[in-house]
Design brief:
heteropentamer, A mainly alpha, B alpha/beta, C alpha/beta, D alpha+beta, E mainly alpha, B: alpha/beta, ten-stranded mixed β-sheet, 11 helices, E: mainly alpha, MetI-like fold, about 60% helix, flat, binds adenosine-5'-triphosphate, binds magnesium ion, transmembrane helix (chain A), MetI-like_sf (chain A), MetI-like (chain A), cell membrane (chain A), membrane (chain A)
């Protein structure tokens, strides 16, 4: 196992380097300069700013400088927020995003699993169709529409939950629901398919032949085996949740990373773009690794193969 | 002998895209204490469906028991509630399936899978169940049961997995063991081991076994009595000697004739021509008629009743009717028929009445 | 049976890399197949039977060794044209009647694939005529030509597979467990058909199976494989009458026969390759102990066998 | 301060009010901002959010009052004025009780330190040119590359006579001199403290010192910030508010919802919400001196024709735009120097000479005539134009509207909209790579010149290749003219040339903003330039 | 069998029957190919049929909807801006809300003195929402189909090559995918749109930059599985060229999976386009996609819900329909349900 992870880490590093380089050069293709209020700057001032941030150097030189600093753990400072280091900015933004992402993932997964299980157990009944309609709606309605509606009705009209801000648990409820809707939907559909697949397996018949109750069969034999493949879609989902919540972050005034990421692209804040991209890539690669390892832990068949 | 199970006029159908599949169409059979009943017949003839019906495991939908009784200990399994069935499954009647590779849950240790039934039916504690599981593994001949008990199925070879499946089935000393093609997926050598194991266990525990297979060699090896199924019906039933040495139904002839014995010389094997009938629309009369070289006109019109050949031997073919011309079974079959001069067959009605 | 060698296999090896380890699926096979005979290959699952067949027909490139067909080395460097010629002479019938037919093609297209590839028909009519002829040969009829595989039973599918192989008029057919997946009653259909075709067309078969009674019935000579090697090779009657290698003996003693009386008396011999490992560290090699009867044995054992014969 | 650009067009979310306690209202005001504070270093800040925050926690020599008049801040008195050799020396005395929040006094050196820092090429402020605008000696030369004085900040015409005395030497007296001094770039910085903090200065609340009415007590980057009353402020008795919170809210609907639930005291409105809140007692609109206009690129053959430009100028129906699309108090503009912004020597609004702008009574008819004439002159019967704009919602709305206006009224005209992100937009516009582009401009100081200098030949913002000797002469003349009446007249003439004669740009509207504000918020002052608001005088009453 | 059911058994009946041995091999019923069979299954799947009907109806509306009244998608008239929906005939069915009364209870048609009917209301420019929504549907569908098509071409080629040639080729191609996947696709897409001219084309290309990866993976998995199937081996032993193996055996067998994947790609593309619109990277106005219409209306969700409602319903219906059809096809193609 240790060696396996070791090997994976090496290949992760290579992947990471390639991603870092690719992003760097792509970013250099972005039009415009990173300076705020450019409209009021004269040509010479822009030149001076470029000089100051080393943007006048040839791109390869900038690249080498960046990569060298990267290995020292220095991601540079934001162009937009004077002098604040990229690591600090990511650091203070990651908390809410991570919390929200995690909570939505948790809630979405739980509900998704429930819906999927119900749909599969009540295959081709009204409950099945009901759950799947919910699931499809969850993917179909844009999350910002759900968010906007909730904010108005639940927050303003009924006054049940705070409209926005990030100040405590009750503030997380609406954004969580808005994000979790899609998660629930995706997981529910996946789970249903997997459940149906597992329910048709011979070992389920074996379990039934033992005289186990249907509940025991479902809980002990079906759900576990059906959930294992779900782990594989969790990886990309985690990252998507971290990056993809920007709309929700904006609507509910949550100081998260997704919003920062998009605004940094819009303002050509190169160090932040690089920083966040690299952060997300690392996150992604690590999550994938974790998922694979987890998969091996949950599925005994893979554990040994991986351990070789 | 004591009948511990009796199936009467069982009909099972499945509702599918193509229409109603009449998978089992009036099966009658019984099982006596301590005996092994082999059910043979080609693929799709309804062997598994019959056994699943006994276990109450016909998936519903699409399947349903349309008619018939399955009497076990005086009670009709076909009418039992799911709950009652659950208390019988695994403790009174258990089942082993064909494919050892897929009949075990890959993510649960074999020990746990054995223990489940024990905990449920015998209300053993976890530790008790575990030591019993180890005993069972030892019983089915798995070396190092102490370590094996906490391993996962993929760490076992095919033969060992089938042993585990058997251990699960035997965990609660069931009175009936239904083995649905338990050795088809295995190598001959392992098959032989499993068969020996089953025979041993039967001797020790007095279990009655319903053994489903299409390998006649296996039947000869393990069965006391044999039921031959074709297109959802039992077409011939008798003791193993009666079926092998005095077969009466042309389908049984075909089955026996299509297997070379070690001394079969150059002559052709008897192939049963054609393919089995479509059970959504079973043919009128004798379902075997279209593939039967001895078919008579009546076969295409009327379903043959069971004819009694001896107290234990019955066959459903018009060839046994007194008016039927005497037909010679094929050479290969004739060679088998040793000194079992057939007494005059009599026709049997559904409720067992005789008709001269 | 003429004693003309159609196929010579010399020290054939096929090793697969699986991750970092190597699976020696076939490890030094040597045997000949004569023109017009049926050579049976038996052995337990995973001993390398299929790999042998597939390597012979070049689905895999051999790791080592030679396969000489009609005097030509099959595994030498070949251009596409030569290979194509070879493909016409050697054909294969597969085990799984469900997996061996492309579910998206009609029976006619499946059967005619060889005809199309080798350009054996001048026009559509000729192609169809040939397909109909082949269908008849394997006991099916014209109407089946436009149907799809899933509409057929296992036995019918297997016969379609045979028709496909026959389409290019091969001399040699490798049948990899052609009946294992079939019903007993249907197995006979296929076996009878294969025998008939052999009689009519003088085909040569390599018949791979683990059902020993069927193998004995159909084969002239049988090779018993164990872990990638042949441990015994003899005429089929000879092999059954006088199995010398303990593995062969164990294999034979394990087969249940459709004869209750025989079954009641049959006792099984056990074989454990570790117990049987030669103590001296010597390797067992195939040696001819009787005419045409080869056994893998050490020098010492050879002496013993010779003495008993 | 802050330049209005196209991006700033949407209903801004500055706003405010306070929650009240029982009996006497609790002096807390909760406001929204639409962006983060990019910098709290007065020499580095460039944006409206920063300037607004700075105005509450820092103070220059002057600050703007309710009527946008400069009133004394750090300065104890109006300066002494001395003229010699065509230069004027102002001598300011700094208040005795002017202290930084750590208790140290604000000194003349703190001013000079900050100003020189702003002029220094190593830490050059984007607003360094303001010193030149103020007429301060050598300011322009110091920031002009190639000039012998380039980078020599010590040559700047400012001097600390002693701790509390500051001398400023100007080579040209400008009428808006004091107003400029209210601008953040002219704020002082605590020299010793700043030097001690180094790179960290003004990055967090504890790495800066305050000399304004409030101190920043909390700063959650990306989320919001909080001000608290500054006990060290010289005029802290005037300050009523104990606490002000700001939250960054980018979504207008969210802001309105927060307002509805009482979480904030002021919220900006977009056009849609105006329909809903018009007539509500909380509803307020305000006209800002920010102008929006279209640049017509004379590099384009068709647009080089005056009649074509005139046609475009006349074809645009500004009423629909301001009343329906914007719907926020914006005013249709056929002029370039905004209303209610600059007041002449006689105290009258600059606009009074042409209150409704130029050709105010002309419309579609005349547009068509001019169009046909123009087409004839260039010998074409159809014209394709590319309309460059940014990708914000409002900008694209306006572009859609303009396209439809032009196309339906001017036969043979085909307009293609090119929507670009802001950075890319600027890139293209600066390169002159457009036919029509949208522009916006807010004043840096309260004088028409802050608008008019833009379109001198070769000026940075003259991106549409407009050249007019007449215009150039008028503008440069006005820059030097010391007779204020005459100067005023010259500027009015210049505007007339720019628009009525040359149709160099198509002004569209003067921006208004609509917002909701709780009635219990009193004395909330808004400014047309520099910082948007002053909270010094705000009181919560009757909540 | 009951005795009385037995008629007289005459000797005659015991004569050998002439069984036509050729009938033995007869197969009843019509020949059903894979596609026919799948279609039969699909037809029985209510959800899929509903999905197909929705897609057909929406596509027809996307084509003909804009022509169904006299308004064009860009014609502005500020005098009739922001009118709620009003449909002749349905205006009297109160709960439908198609009577021109806004959420504050004011009949805007009366208030603004408008006599025409706008079936989906009008937007802030007074443009007919009906026309715009269908125009937008047209564009959204076009973008989605085009993106799906590109995904299809690249994905199938990439996955196919990777699996078919295997070994080192596969290894390298899979590494490339790993890297691509490692870059959050949002940044790739945004960069793409920024670098190229904004507009339909760059949105399509942007969606395709990473969109094909899913398809490539699925095709690769399928081909890997298929290429060792016995029927492929059979073809090889017959001497089939690579081209033949790919064209006749592999592609037809992965086609089902490909179609299913495409069915799910389309709604994803529609959705992603909407997302891009939301962050301001949509297409050039006055052209609009469903996403940009929703995005424009979103800010006035509380006041003019009709601006969001109708396009949202259409986009949701489209998504639901494609998902339903995808699910239906998956069931229809499921080999486990076939014999
Ligand atoms: N779940 C089901 N749905 C529809 N038809 C079914 C189902 N299960 C069984 N059948 C049908 O019932 C008939 C009998 O099947 P059964 O499994 O009993 O055959 P079998 O004799 O056990 O064959 P095999 O030797 O292949 O196991 C077959 O025609 C089969 O198609
Ligand atoms: N392509 C391959 N890659 C790796 N290993 C393989 C491959 N093909 C076969 N093997 C391995 O080679 C060994 C021999 O396999 P082969 O299929 O030839 O056995 P077999 O005798 O045909 O078995 P069976 O009776 O089960 O068909 C097995 O251990 C198998 O796992
Ligand atoms: Mg079965
Ligand atoms: Mg094999």
């Amino acid at each position: 196992m240790g060696r396996y992870i070791g090997g994976r880490v090496v290949s992760m590093l290579v992947t990471f380097l390639i991603i870092a380089s690719l992003t760097f050069f792509l970013m250099k293709l972005l039009p415009g300069t990173p300076f705020n209020n450019q409209e009021k700057m004269s040509e010479s001032q822009i030149q001076q700013m470029n000089e100051k941030y080393g943007l006048n150097d040839p791109v390869p030189v900038q690249y080498v400088t960046y990569m060298t600093n990267l290995f020292k753990g220095d991601l540079g400072v934001s162009f937009q927020q004077d002098g604040r280091s990229v690591t600090t900015i990511i650091g203070e933004r990651i908390g809410p995003s991570a919390y929200l992402g995690f909570q939505s993932l948790l809630i979405g997964t739980i509900f998704g699993l429930l819906l999927g299980i119900i749909a599969a157990l009540k295959h081709n009944t009204f409950l099945d169709y009901g759950s799947m309609i919910i699931a499809v709606l969850g993917i179909s309605i844009p999350s910002f529409v759900i968010a906007g509606m909730m904010q108005y009705w639940v927050g303003v009209k009924w006054g049940m939950l705070p409209v926005a801000y990030w100040e405590g648990f009750e503030y997380t409820i609406m954004p969580t629901i808005a994000i979790a809707a899609a998660v629930t939907a995706t997981i529910a559909r996946f789970m249903r398919t997997e459940m149906l697949e597992v329910l048709g397996q011979d070992y389920i018949t074996t379990a039934k032949a033992k005289g186990l109750t249907s509940t025991a069969v479902v809980i002990k034999h079906t759900i576990r085996n059906a959930s294992i493949p779900i782990i594989t879609i969790m990886g990309p989902m985690v990252v998507a949740l971290m990056t993809g919540t920007l709309v929700i972050e904006q609507i509910f005034v949550i100081p998260g990373l997704g919003e920062k990421f998009v605004s940094s692209i819009m303002t050509n804040d190169f160090p932040i773009i690089m920083g966040t991209t690299l952060f997300f890539s690392i996150l992604f690669i690590v999550v994938i690794l974790v998922v694979d390892v987890l998969y091996g832990i949950v599925d005994p068949r893979i554990r040994l193969a991986g351990g070789k | 002998m004591e009948k511990i199970l009796e199936v009467k006029d069982l009909h099972v159908s499945f509702d599918t895209f193509g229409g109603e599949v009449k998978a089992v169409r009036g099966v009658n059979l019984h099982l006596e204490k301590g005996e092994t009943l082999a059910i043979v017949g080609e693929s799709g003839s309804g062997k598994s469906v019959t056994s699943k019906a006994i276990m109450g495991l016909i998936p519903n939908p699409p399947g349903r028991i349309k008619e018939g009784e399955i009497l076990f200990g005086g009670k009709d399994l076909a009418k039992m509630s799911e709950k009652e069935l659950q208390s019988i499954r695994g403790s009174e009647i258990s089942m082993i399936f064909q494919d050892p590779m897929t009949s075990l849950n890959p993510t649960m240790t074999v020990g746990k899978q054995i223990m489940e039934g024990l905990i449920k039916h015998q209300r053993l504690s976890k530790t008790e169940a575990k030591s019993r599981a180890i005993e069972l593994l030892k019983l089915v001949g798995i070396p190092n049961p102490d370590t094996r008990v906490s391993q996962y199925p993929h760490q076992f070879s095919g033969g060992m997995r089938q042993r585990v499946v058997i251990a699960i089935a035997l965990a609660c000393n069931p009175r009936i063991l239904i083995a649905d093609e338990p050795t088809t997926a295995l190598d001959v050598t392992i098959q032989a081991q499993i068969l020996e194991l089953l025979r041993d266990l039967q001797e020790k525990m007095g279990t009655s076994i319903i053994f489903i297979t299409h390998d006649l060699g296996v039947v000869a090896n393990i069965a006391d009595r044999v039921a031959v199924m074709y297109a959802g019906k039992i077409v011939e039933t008798g003791t193993v000697d009666e079926i092998f040495y005095n077969p009466q139904h042309p389908y049984t002839w075909g089955l026996l004739g299509s297997m070379p014995s070690l001394d079969t010389s150059e002559e052709e094997l008897i192939a049963i021509p054609g393919s089995p009938p479509d059970l959504t629309d079973p043919p009128k009369g004798d379902a075997f008629a279209p593939r039967n070289p001895y078919a008579m006109k009546i076969d295409t019109e009327l379903e043959p009743p069971l004819f009694k050949i001896s107290d234990t031997h019955y066959a459903a073919t018009w060839l046994l009717h007194e008016k039927a011309p005497k037909v010679e079974p094929p050479e290969a079959i004739k060679k088998r028929m040793k000194g079992m001069a057939s007494s005059k067959p009599t026709m049997v009605t559904k409720d067992g009445e005789r008709n001269g | 049976m003429a004693n003309e060698k159609l196929l010579e296999i010399k020290n054939l090896k096929q090793h697969f890399k699986v991750g970092k380890s190597v699976v020696k699926a076939v490890d030094g096979l040597t045997f000949d197949i004569y023109k017009g005979e049926t050579f049976g290959l038996v052995g337990e699952s995973g001993c390398g039977k299929s790999t042998t067949g597939r390597t012979i027909i070049r689905l895999y490139d051999a790791t080592d060794g030679e396969v000489i067909f009609d005097g030509e080395n099959v595994h030498g460097k070949k251009n596409a044209k030569e290979l194509k010629k070879f493909n016409r002479k050697m054909q294969m019938i597969f085990q799984d009647p469900y997996a061996s037919l492309n579910p998206r093609m009609t029976v006619a297209d499946i059967i005619a694939e060889g005809i199309d590839i080798h350009g054996l028909a001048k026009n559509k009519e000729e192609r169809m005529a040939r397909v109909h002829e082949l269908l008849e040969t394997v006991g099916l009829n014209k109407e089946h030509a436009n149907r799809y595989p899933h509409e057929f039973s296992g036995g019918q599918r297997q016969r379609i597979g045979i028709a496909r192989a026959l389409a290019v008029d091969p001399e040699f057919i490798i049948a990899d467990e052609p009946i294992s997946a079939l019903d007993v009653s249907i197995q006979a259909q296929v076996v009878n058909l294969m025998k008939k075709l052999q009689r009519e067309k003088g085909l040569t078969y390599l018949f791979i199976a683990h059902d020993l009674s069927m193998v004995k019935y159909i084969s002239d000579r049988i090779g018993v494989m164990y872990q990638g090697e042949i441990v015994e090779l003899a005429d089929s009657d000879e092999l059954y009458a006088d199995p010398l290698h303990p593995y062969t003996q164990s294999l034979l003693s394990a087969i249940p026969l459709p004869d209750p009386e025989y079954e009641r008396s049959r006792t099984r011999k056990l074989y454990d390759s570790e117990d049987y490992a030669p103590k001296s560290g010597e390797k067992r090699v195939l040696r001819e102990v009787k005419k045409g009867h080869w056994v893998a044995c050490t020098e010492e054992e050879y002496e013993q066998f010779m003495a008993t014969v | 301060g802050g330049g209005g650009n196209n991006n700033a067009g949407e209903g801004g979310n500055e706003g405010g009010n306070a929650e009240g306690g029982e009996g006497k209202s609790e002096q807390v005001l909760n406001l929204l901002e639409s962006a983060e504070i990019p910098s709290m270093d007065t020499t580095q800040a460039t944006d409206a959010t920063s300037f607004n925050a700075m105005n509450q926690i820092f103070e220059g020599l002057y600050r703007l009052d309710e009527n946008n008049k400069p009133v004394l801040g750090m300065a104890a008195d109006e300066p002494k004025e001395e003229e010699k050799d065509g230069e004027t020396v102002y001598t300011f005395t700094i208040r005795d009780d002017a202290n930084w929040s750590d208790g140290t006094p604000v000194t003349a050196n703190d001013f000079i330190f900050a100003w020189k820092k702003a002029m220094n090429p190593d830490s050059l402020s984007q607003y360094a040119s303001m010193f030149g605008t103020a007429g301060i000696k050598n300011a322009n030369a110091i920031i002009t590359e190639g000039d012998p004085l380039y980078g020599k900040v010590d040559e700047l015409g400012v001097k600390a006579v002693d701790d509390k005395t500051l001398e400023i030497t100007v080579t040209q007296k400008v009428p808006y001199f004091k107003s400029l001094l209210t601008f953040a770039t002219f704020y002082p910085q605590p020299k010793d403290f700043v030097e001690k903090q180094g790179d960290k200065y003004a990055l967090e609340t504890d790495t800066m010192l305050y000399n304004g009415p409030f101190v920043m007590s909390e700063w959650n980057h990306g989320d919001g910030w909080t001000f608290e009353k500054n006990p060290e402020y010289w005029d802290n008795e005037t300050v009523s508010l104990e606490k002000v919170t700001y939250k960054i809210v980018k979504d207008v609907a969210t802001g309105v919802n927060l307002y509805e639930t009482g979480k904030v005291d002021r919220a900006g409105l977009s056009a849609d919400f105006v329909d809903q809140y018009k007539g509500n007692e909380d509803f307020v609109t305000r006209l800002e001196p920010t102008m929006f206009f279209l640049r017509l690129n004379q590099k384009n053959e068709a647009l080089a024709n005056t009649n074509i430009r005139k046609a475009l100028y006349l074809a645009y129906d500004r009423e629909g735009l301001v009343n329906v699309l914007l719907n926020n108090g914006s005013v249709a503009a056929k002029y370039f120097v905004p209303k209610e912004f600059a007041f002449g020597p006689n105290g009258k609004d600059f606009r009074e000479f042409a209150p409704d702008g130029f050709l105010a009574d002309k419309g579609a008819e005349e547009a068509k005539a001019a169009w046909e004439k123009g087409l004839q002159e260039i010998g074409k019967d159809s014209v394709d134009l590319e309309f460059l704009t940014t990708d914000t919602e409002l900008a694209s709305k306006i572009a859609e509207y303009a396209k439809e206006q032009f196309q339906t009224k001017l036969e043979g005209l085909n307009v293609t909209i090119n929507k670009q992100p802001w950075k890319q937009f600027l890139e293209l516009e600066t390169a002159g790579d457009f036919d029509i582009s949208t522009g916006g401009w807010g004043p840096d100081y309260p004088d028409p010149m802050t608008f008019l200098y833009m379109f001198e030949t070769g000026a940075d913002y003259n991106r549409m290749n407009y050249t007019s000797e007449k215009y150039d002469k008028l503008v440069s003349g006005a820059k030097k003219e010391t007779d204020l009446e005459k100067r005023w007249k010259m500027m009015q003439d210049a505007e007339k040339v720019l628009i009525e004669e040359d149709f160099a740009i198509v002004p569209t509207y003067q921006r208004g903003t609509a917002s909701l504000m709780k009635p219990y918020v009193k004395n909330y002052f808004l400014h047309p330039f520099g910082a948007d608001t002053s909270l010094k005088w705000v009181k919560i009453e009757g909540k | 069998m009951r005795q009385e059911q037995l008629p007289d058994l005459t000797d005659d009946m015991f004569q050998p029957a002439d069984i036509d041995s050729s009938k033995n091999e007869e197969i009843a019923g019509e020949s059903t190919g894979f596609w026919k069979d799948a279609w039969r299954r699909l037809r029985k799947n209510l959800g899929a049929i509903i999905g197909i009907v929705i897609i057909v109806v929406l596509s027809l509306l996307a084509i003909f909807g804009p022509m169904m009244n006299e308004y064009s998608y860009h014609e502005q008239d500020l005098m009739r801006a922001k009118l709620p929906a009003k449909v002749p005939g349905l205006e009297n069915v109160g709960f439908l809300g198609l009577n021109g009364v806004d959420i504050r209870g004011v009949d805007q048609y009366e208030a603004k003195g408008v006599d025409e009917y706008f079936w989906f209301g009008t937007d802030e420019f007074g443009r007919d929402q009906w026309t715009r929504v269908w125009q937008g549907t047209r564009i959204s569908l076009f973008i989605a189909l085009a993106a799906a098509f590109i995904d299809f071409v690249i994905g199938v080629a990439y996955g196919g090559i990777s699996a078919f040639y295997g070994g080192r080729v596969d290894n390298i191609l899979q590494r490339i995918i790993e890297v691509l996947v490692g870059i959050p696709n949002l940044i790739l897409i945004i960069l793409f749109i920024l670098i190229f001219e904004p507009g339909i084309l760059s949105i399509i290309l942007a969606l395709a930059v990473t969109g094909w990866i899913g398809m490539a993976r699925i095709v690769r998995g399928q081909v890997l599985k298929l290429k060792n199937q016995e029927f492929v081996l059979a073809s090889r032993t017959l001497g089939a060229s690579d081209g033949r193996v790919i064209g006749r055996h592999l592609i037809p067998n992965v086609l089902g999976q490909i179609i299913i994947t495409t069915m799910f790609t389309i709604p994803n593309a529609i959705f992603f386009e909407a997302f891009l619109s939301f962050i301001g990277l949509g297409i050039r106005p006055p052209e609009a996609s469903l996403g940009s219409i929703i995005n424009n209306g979103f800010s006035s969700l509380q006041i003019y819900p009709h601006l969001v409602l109708y396009p949202s319903i259409v986009i949701s219906l489209l998504m639901i329909a494609f998902n339903l059809v995808g699910d239906g096809l998956r069931d229809a193609f499921d080999p486990k349900l076939r014999k």
